[in-house]
Amino acid sequence: MGRAYRGDGSAPCAGRRDVGLLLIRASAGGVLLAHGAQKLFGWFGGHGIEGTAAAMETMGFEPGRENAVAAGWAEAGGGALLALGLAAPAAGAAAAGAMAAATAVHWDRGLFTQHGGYEFPALLGAAAVGIGLTGAGRLSLDHATGHVLDRPWMAAAAFAGTAVTAGAVINKRNAVVARRAGAAEQRRLEEEAARNAEDAAREAEHEAEQGGGN
């Protein structure tokens, strides 16, 4: 179902599945490419590397510049390759890794975007994983080049490497966020203790003044 065949009934031509994959690749890959270009070059109203690096630092990705460059190229490069249908396993894995990190940032806010949730990066990541595992279809450069960059072992290696790398990045970011939260709480307690000490000193001074007047 969904496949078109040549007139002699032999080799299949591009069919509905291939057109569907092309539409998914073009839309998801185009969005990823645009977001990557925002990070890397400041295009489409983005902040460029310096602005993205500062934002990365704020979100807990240290060092910010290196993470900004890695995320930008994973999105831009992965998105471009997905749209073209070239090296689908590597492209899908790279984009999925970037979206996994973005999902982790928004995880505590729930699913929906209106609450700052993770639905947008999760959806892009799922599309990237699907294309990377399924393949780009016949309307792709992978098909045109004989799938030299789209072998089963490549998919296994790419997604395994991405899982390890993304997991390490997310764990490091979570540790940074926890450390910052602990430091902020410690500062709050110290400031509260200082205020309490000042209040106690003022109260003692006031009582001493009252005692001297009597």
TrEMBL record:
Keywords of this entry: Cell membrane, Membrane, Transmembrane, Transmembrane helix
Q: Does the keyword Membrane apply?
A: yes
Biased composition regions of type Basic and acidic residues, renumbered to the chain = 185-214
Task: State any GO CC term.
Answer: plasma membrane
Major place of residence: membrane
Q: Which InterPro entries match?
A: DoxX, DoxX-like_oxidoreductase
Q: Where are the transmembrane segments?
A: 80-105, 117-141, 153-170
Lipid bilayer topology: Multi-pass membrane protein
Q: Supply the Pfam families for this chain.
A: DoxX
Q: Does the keyword Cytoplasm apply?
A: no
- Give the subcellular location: Cell membrane
Region described as Disordered: spans on this chain: 183-214
Q: Which family does it belong to?
A: Belongs to the DoxX family.
What is the protein name for this chain? DoxX family membrane protein
